[in-house]
Amino acid sequence: MKSADEIKRLFHSAAVQTNAAPDGAVFQTLKTAYTRTVEHKAAQREPSIWRFVVRNPSVKLAVAAVIVIACVIGLSLWRTTGSGIALADVLARMEQVKAYRVTTSAQFWSTKVTGEEPNKPYNFTEAHYTWLTSKEYGRKSTHGELDPNGGWSKTAESYCLPPKRTYISIWPKQKRYRRTQFHDRWAEQFEDSPYSPGRLVKRILEYKYESLGRSTIDGIEVEGFRTTDPNHVVHIINRGESEIQADIKIWVDVKTQLPVRCDSTYVLSYQNKKKYEHFVEHDFQWDIPVAAADFEPVIPDDYTGIVIKYPAHITEETAIEGLKVWGELLGKYPEKSPLQIEADDADVGDAVLRLAEKSETPAALRFKEEMKGLTDEQIKNKLVDFLMPIRGLDKFYMALQWYKKDRAYYGKTVTPKDADKVLMRWKVSENEYRVIFGDLHAETVAPEKLAELEAALPK
Amino acid sequence: MLQDKLLIWRLRRGNVDALRQIYDKYKAYLLKLAITLTGDACHSEDVVQDVFLKLAESYDRIGVHGNLRNFLITCLVNRIRTLRRDGRRHQAAQCDGSAIERPQACRPDQWAVVNEQMQRIGEAMVKLPVEQREVVTLRFEAGLGFRQIASMQNASVNTVQGRYRYGMDKLRSLLNGEVDK
């Protein structure tokens, strides 16, 4: 009778190998199944609301630049460098950081591809951002631009405060602010959003990078890494059909294993011009003490603002609910787009009030009755909830554009009575389109059927 | 473990390369586990393909903090049980239930190639009762604890330990003389 250890040794010496030819065939089957599932799930996925909360493109890009640090570390995670920095340790170290501050200096300019002065820079601007991020409180950022006197003036300030379910933007020059109240599940999503450095440490693991070796920055021994793969920011920049080139270099302190500096340049090529955007992240302060007061926005009394609420879910049902509100209020759908006015959020309330004033539908009469005698402040508060489905519809429609879902909207010619006419449509897969009809029922149709339906629309 | 978590994370983001890495990392391991449990290389190939297919189609069911290896092992064990149950149902009239478990000569283009020791273990293991075989395999090959195995078998820890003891005793008898080779 043999011991368990001897049997264990026999087990361990037993081995299975795989033959290459069937091996490739098996993986091909898996790959096909996986790709199909990924596409199917992508078609059903609800968009992350955080993509749309931050509206200013330059702020989006600045955020993108900050997170590049995380990206490059993410890319390198699989390997240790020749000089011995274990980048998995850098990732682990970054995740331990409770709060940090960083400054971003940015430059933007453009050049013409053709014409009299090709390659001559024009529209040169500079911007300055500071970021204070805390695991406990959220993130505060300030945005400054070069003023005519050569100094920096603060143009915007924003606070993303997941514990308070609030996102606040303040524009001092305009004396305006916007407070977005979000649902609990958004707070959970924030951890998964492109604007969460903690989450983004793990982002884009698949892109190629190279080691730049050791160097010294401000007397600190650093090790550099570089990637020229633009895919880590394409999802954030989303500049239509433009091509993006990227060159990102990051240096990590050899002793603390935390980033010290990051240089990133993006070239966005359009048909007749190129846009250049250069960011430098510097003055990192890791593990700094922060207090709740650092994340308390101060809004002077003379500032005007709006409060925005979005539905918890941004889905097809949200869109239908928004269209229903419009349909009942106006007796028809907005002509231009589901939001009627693709403008600043503040104008949406004004637009609804203006349009409702002219409408005589039962819903409009009820709405006007409810608003009668209210002060401006009370009307503003009342509109917060009333506009929620409409804002949800707006976000849904934006998401369709963002994810390039071949969206279309026919509110100009289709009314709530048109049960067989396409009001809105978007692509869900290669062979399927989702269609919301005039009476707000939804169906999935083949592209051929959609072509027939659209051909039948009034011109 | 960190690597597995990152693989899951990438897989959940639709990365085919992550699927490739998981496949390369676990295919031989799962085949070995399956052959130990079924004693049949051809049958094990189908089972392991099914497990990977399950992963490819249900990858979002593993949380980023989930355990990839345990997920695959659980899928494998469940798949073998299901097939065994179906096999029994379909062949109840003709055989004693061991039809799918008997070591067989495989086709020339077979996926899994086993060494001599593997062959011996496969042959010995099919002579153990199914529950004992599972416990011994999951303990030896998968390195699972009795509590985990008990949970998978929906049995008490004592029962699982008993199965392990009986299984090992029988395996010792069956392999007596083999382990010295």
Structure overview:
The complex is a heterodimer of chains A (459) and B (181). Chain A has a twelve-stranded mixed beta sheet. Helices cover 35% and strands 30% of the residues of chain A. Chain A is an alpha+beta fold and 459 residues long. Chain A contains 14 helices and 17 strands. Chain B is mainly alpha-helical and 181 residues long. Chain B folds into two domains: 113 residues, RNA polymerase sigma factor, region 2, helix turn helix motif (Rna Polymerase Sigma Factor, Chain: A, Orthogonal Bundle); 55 residues, Winged helix-like DNA-binding domain superfamily/Winged helix DNA-binding domain (Arc Repressor Mutant, subunit A, Orthogonal Bundle). In chain B, helix 6 packs across helix 8. Chain B is globular. The chains are: A alpha+beta (459), B mainly alpha (181). The interface between A and B is large, with 37 and 50 residues.
Give the topology, please.
The complex is a heterodimer of chains A (459) and B (181).
Chain A: H1 4-13, E1 16-18, H2 20-44, H3 50-53, H4 57-76, H5 87-96, E2 99-112, E3 122-134, E4 138-146, E5 152-161, E6 166-171, E7 176-181, H6 184-190, H7 197-200, E8 210-217, E9 220-227, H8 231-237, E10 243-253, E11 259-269, E12 273-286, E13 304-309, H9 316-330, H10 345-358, H11 362-371, H12 376-386, H13 388-402, E14 408-409, E15 422-429, E16 432-437, E17 442-445, H14 447-455
Parallel strand pairs in A: 7-13
Antiparallel strand pairs in A: 2-3, 2-12, 3-4, 4-5, 5-6, 6-7, 8-9, 9-10, 10-11, 11-12, 14-15, 15-16, 16-17
Helix pairs in contact in A: 4-5, 4-8, 9-13
Chain B: H1 2-12, H2 16-38, H3 41-58, H4 68-91, E1 112-114, H5 116-125, H6 130-140, H7 146-153, H8 157-175
Helix pairs in contact in B: 1-2, 2-3, 2-4, 2-5, 3-4, 6-8, 7-8
